[in-house]
Structures are given as structure tokens and as C-alpha cells.
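Problem 12. The chain below contains 294 residues. Write out its predicted structure in C-alpha cell notation.
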Amino acid sequence: MSLPATQAAPRLIPRLLQAPAVVTLFLWMIVPLVMTLYFSTIRYNLMQPEQSGFIGLENYHYFITDPSFGTAVLNTLLLIGSVIAISVVGGVALALLVNEPFAGRGIVRMLLISPFFVMPTVNALMWKHMMMNPIYGVFAQIAQWFGATPIDFMADWPMTAVVIMVSWQWLPFACLIFITALQSLDREQMEAARMDGASWLDQLRHLVLPHLARPVAVVVMIEMIFLLSVFAEIFTTTGGGPGDASTNVAFLIFKQALLNFDAGVASAGALFAVVLANVVAIFLVRLIGKSLDK
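Solution.
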């Protein structure tokens, strides 16, 4: 049964007012995606503009069979897994540490979360020149003080260097989330557990960690989405090398687009990254859903 005109009019006006914003957001998301999909199916090399035309899935085949592809995917997974493990474990430990009352706790908390607000490029330059330089860096000076040979992180351990840089920046984010979660922990329940003779480890295992399950799931989801696109740290420090030792998927797409000038293959790589991000997002949404249902 159709609604009377007097009842339909109040619903129509809000929808008409919302329409411009909805259409703008829809076009903002769909137009770049459609253009990327179009470029991924044509021959589009900036150094060979005379060669063009529809080539189907050839760009995808070229990107997947690139000798750097396997290394880039493994480095991406290694970077994501390492940074998330460090930030979650370190974040929980630091949050528990600064959650206890002590003099200057507010200042310590502020200093603790400050690395999260440093720009990725500045973060990379600081670690490259101040901390990891094999001649005058802090790590080199410490190694020489102990009589050891300084490590050239950018040449010998490039992926480890990138993991350290990114972890240093994302650890404060995890710590901030966990500190906020600990503020809502039931103090009376903790006090009752202490009066019943529960040790610190028992309280951590049966009260604190279950309480942090949801914040951990949120931190893992947010960090994984952003870590899929880590680029500035690699570009500024190692340039993806030596060889492909520190190349991830985002940097491989950059090499195809701006070093090989092949926009078609780069577009195919970008869509591969979109698919990878969606697969990860679906997995994480289900993981968080199960966590919230408990």
C-alpha cells in the first residue's frame, strides 16, 4: 500500500538533502577505483606512449610473475606480523607499567605517546642518521664501547631496521589504547582478587588480559590496515634494497609506476593490494566479531 502524500513528503525532504553528500562520497570512492581498473587492463607505459590498447589480464600476469613479487609479499607479511607483535606485547607491558600511580605519571604518558605524532619521513631520517648510522649512530657508539663491530643496519639488516622504525612509531598508539582500556578495569574486582590471595600473574591472566581482548583486536585491525601501505620509511632509508631485501607491495607498486613508468602494471598491483587489504579486513572483522560476542 502506498503512503499518502502527506506522510511521504517528510521522508522525501531529508533524503533529498542527504543525496549530494551521498553521491559525492560514492563518486569519491568509485571513480578512482574504476579508473584504476581501466588502466590495469590497457597497455599504458609512459615511456612507450605509441603502444596502447586493451590487453586484458596481461598486466596482472606481469605483476604477479615479477621476480620481486614473492619477496615483496613475504616482506609485507613479515613487516605486519612483526610490528603488530611488538606493539601489542610492548603496548600491554608499558600500559601496565604506567597505569600504576607514581610521581610525574602524566608527563611520562605524554612522552610515551609522542612518537606516534612524528611524521614517517622524519622518523626514518632520525633512525637512519642518529640511531643506526654505522659510524656515528647511537647503536654504533654502544657497540664500539663494548668492543664489538658496529652493524650496518641499512646494508646487512634492512628489513629489521624498517621493522624497528615502524614499531617505534606504532607502539605508542597501542599503548594509548591499552591505557584507556585499563582505566575502565573494575578496581573492586582487582581488590577482591588480591584479598583472596591471587598473585599478580593470576590477576594478569584471569582479569587484565581478558579485559584487554577487545582493545587488542581493535589495535590489530587498525595497525594491519595502515601497515599494508608502509612506504615512507622504506623510500627514505633503504630504497627497497639492497636488491629487494626491504621491498614490500607498496614499494613494488611505486617502482612499477615511477621507476619503470608502467602505469598499467602499477594499477594491476594497486588492485592486488586492494584485494589483499579486503581479505585481511574480512578476516579481522570476523575475529573482532567473535571477540565481541564473548
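Discussion. The CA atoms of residues 13 and 19 lie 10 Å apart. Students who got a different answer should revisit the alignment rule from Section 12.3.
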